[in-house]
Specification:
Shape: elongated
Structural class: alpha/beta
Number of helices: 5
Strand content: 25-35%
Helix content: 25-40%
Length: 200
């Protein structure tokens, strides 16, 4: 878990970028117990709150496993609701698959793969909806983008300080270079990509 002391250390590092990937696995405490995790949803929520306070503008991303043995539809809905509440920037979704020799593989209540597939799509849709909500709220903001690859003579792709994939359209006469940190204004978004223009 993220302790108050650790969050205080993070807040004191000005060069630290406000992106943290903190694995959750499930937003349902019952499922977390079955996974033998040493935390529950409430403890994770407290860690997320400390990170958000320490790193303004935080882009918090996570991992979710769907279809873990014994996961009911109610558990799944609880996990979805928890992730919606946290407001992750991205959710990496994985379907549980049994591995020989593990305790979970021997559990009697394995989830039907077809049900797990539906639950996976539920989380993928939630991840997209949360990203779109975050992107819409960032249009008009200024940001710094690390240019990584030139796509066309006047178009580059790179990442913001929050590790958000961004395309930057340069006006005629302006050039960029790989590794350059460019101040930009976010002008829009398309699917999973932010769009920006250099800041005047």
């Amino acid at each position: 878990s993220v302790t108050p002391a650790f969050a205080e250390v993070l807040a004191g590092v000005p060069k630290l970028c406000p992106h943290v990937h903190l694995s959750l696995q499930s937003g349902c405490s019952r499922t977390l117990r079955r996974m033998n995790r040493k935390y529950d949803a409430r403890a994770y929520e407290a860690s997320a709150a400390r990170l958000a306070q320490a790193l303004p503008g935080l882009n918090l991303t996570t991992d979710i496993i769907v279809g873990f043995p014994g996961e009911t539809e109610a558990d799944h809905q609880e996990s979805l609701a928890f992730c919606r509440q946290i407001g992750f920037g991205k959710i990496h979704v994985f379907r549980y698959s049994a591995r020989a020799g593990t305790r979970a593989a021997a559990f009697p209540d394995q989830v039907n793969p077809a049900i797990a597939a539906v639950r996976s799509r539920d989380f993928q849709a939630l991840s997209q909806a949360l990203w779109l909500r975050r992107a819409a709220g960032r249009v008009g903001q200024t940001e710094e983008v690390l240019l990584e690859q030139q796509l066309m003579p006047h178009e580059w792709q790179g990442y913001t300080r929050c590790y958000e994939f961004t395309t930057v359209r340069l006006p005629d006469g302006q050039t960029g270079q790989t590794g350059q940190i460019m101040p930009v204004c976010l002008t829009g978004y398309n699917k999973q990509v932010l769009q920006a223009l250099p800041r005047a």
